[in-house]
Amino acid sequence: MGAEFFTVEAWGASPEAAFDKIRQEYGRMYGCSGYSGTIVEKDSFIIFPLPEGANPEEYAVRIALEDPRIDKWGPAGCFVLKEARTAEVKIKGRKVEEERDDHLTRAVILYSVNGCSTGACYGMYPTLEEAEEAAKNYAAKYLEKIELKKEVVAPSNTLFIYEPEDADEYMGHYFFFGYAPY
């Protein structure tokens, strides 16, 4: 089997977040069964400095030819085109549904913090105050809309939605490259 050179741009709250997101996206497009010739074949990356004014594609080819670590079995290379910044988080809205504690007297109430775009549960908290703080931190860290839910034995109620202001302005811009088996 041979190796295919790839380049791909990705955006995210960090190089790791961008790498994971673009690998998932390419996995959905090309499959995850191996030998796709895409970034999905990589499980790690190395950040290289990009000289000012250099063309990322041309410089990526140069690094791939000179650095023995960038091969079809090694890590991908990465240039940070724009650093991610921490966002100020605002409360998007408040949704409170009617509470029904009559039949749930022995239920344990927890507050879950979930990513709206990924569906990931970032944690469960015993108090609303802890959950609010965590939701704000996750929204800023991952530049993602975060939902805080009151969890009981029955279905959950959305209490708050946290969304970073101008998330695109704060996203980092990354350029990944390398060889992948095909």
Q: Any chance you could write out the topology, listing elements then pairs?
A:
Elements: E1 3-12, H1 15-30, E2 45-47, H2 56-66, E3 76-82, E4 89-94, E5 110-115, E6 121-125, H3 128-142, E7 146-151, E8 157-164, H4 167-170, E9 172-181
Parallel strand pairs: 2-3
Antiparallel strand pairs: 1-9, 3-9, 4-8, 5-6, 5-7, 7-8
Summarize the structure.
The protein is of the alpha+beta class.
Total count of helical runs of at least 4 residues: 4
- Distance between the first and last residues' Cα: 6 Å
What pattern of helices and strands is seen along the backbone? EHEHEEEEHEEHE
* Rg for CA atoms: 21 Å
Question: Looking at the structure, what is the overall shape?
Answer: elongated
Helix content: 25-40%
Q: Which regions have little confidence, pLDDT < 50, spanning 5+ residues?
A: none
The total count of strands amounts to 9
Mean pLDDT: 84
Domains, number? 2
Into which percentage range does the β-strand content fall? Answer: 25-35%
